[in-house]
Design goal:
Elements lengths: L4 H14 L6 E2 L20 E5 L4 H7 L2 E2 L5 E4 L3 E4 L5 H12 L9 E6 L4 E6 L5 E4 L6 H7 L12 E5 L5 E5 L1 H5 L3 H4 L8 E4 L1
Parallel strand pairs: 1-10, 7-11
Antiparallel strand pairs: 2-3, 2-6, 4-5, 7-8, 9-10, 9-11
C-alpha cells in the first residue's frame, strides 16, 4: 500500500504557504469601534486644561496649554513636564507626583480641550506620497485622492491601513469597495498616526 505521508506533508506545507506573511483584517469584517479622547495618548499639538484644587487662580493665568513639539507643557511653579504618549489620567498622576510638597494632597485633572488635527501618511503606489492632515471623518478615498490617486501599478485589492493604537492592526481594502460606496469601507474613519499603504 502506497504511503500517503508525502501527500500530507505537501498539503500542510501548501497550507502554510497560503497564509499571509503579515496578518490583516478586511475592512468590511472589522467591528466598529470608537476610542474616547480621554483614553488616547496625548500628542504634540493637543490643547489641554489643567485643574488642581488649590491652584485654580495660578493655573488660570496660564490658560489652556498646548503640548509643544518636544511633548512637554510648562506648568506654573513646576516647570516643564513631558506628557506626550501619556493618557490624560496618566499625565494627571505625573502632575500629582510633581505637586507633592507644593499642594497638600494634590488631585490634578487633565482634560483635552482640542485634539490636534489628525495626520496620516500615504505611501506606496500613489502619485504623490506624503503626510496629510485629515478632517474629522475623512474617508480613505478622499485621502487617496489628495495623494494624487493610485498609480497604474497599484493592486486594486492591496490597499492597507496600518494602525498602532490601541493595538497593531493591518486593515485591508478593495478599491472597488471604496468607489462603490460599500458602507464599512467608505465609512472607515482615519485616525491620527495611521499609515495608508498601497501595494
Amino acid at each position: 500500500m502506497r504511503s500517503t505521508l508525502p501527500l500530507l506533508v505537501v498539503a500542510v506545507l501548501a497550507g502554510i504557504g497560503c497564509q499571509p506573511k503579515h496578518p490583516f483584517v478586511w475592512a468590511n469584517e472589522l467591528p466598529p469601534s470608537e476610542i474616547p479622547v480621554e483614553s488616547q495618548p496625548l500628542r504634540a499639538g493637543d490643547v489641554i486644561r489643567l485643574t488642581v484644587p488649590g491652584m485654580e487662580a495660578d493655573l488660570a493665568k496660564g490658560g489652556d496649554l498646548t503640548i509643544t513639539a518636544d511633548g512637554s507643557i510648562m506648568v506654573p511653579f513646576i516647570g516643564p513636564i513631558r506628557v506626550e504618549g501619556l493618557t490624560p489620567a496618566q499625565a494627571a498622576q505625573q502632575l500629582n507626583s510633581r505637586l507633592n510638597g507644593i499642594v497638600r494632597e494634590p488631585n490634578a485633572r487633565v482634560t483635552v480641550v482640542k485634539p490636534r488635527t489628525p495626520v496620516v501618511a500615504v505611501v506606496g503606489e500613489v502619485r504623490e506620497p506624503g503626510r496629510f492632515e485629515v478632517d474629522q471623518g475623512e474617508s480613505i478615498l478622499t485621502t487617496l485622492s489628495r495623494a494624487g490617486g493610485l498609480t497604474e501599478f497599484a493592486h486594486p485589492t492591496k490597499i492597507f491601513v496600518v494602525r498602532t493604537f490601541p493595538a497593531r492592526t493591518r486593515i485591508r481594502f478593495r478599491y472597488d469597495d471604496l468607489v462603490g460606496g460599500v458602507e464599512r469601507s467608505i465609512d472607515f474613519e482615519l485616525r491620527d498616526g495611521d499609515v495608508v499603504v498601497v501595494q
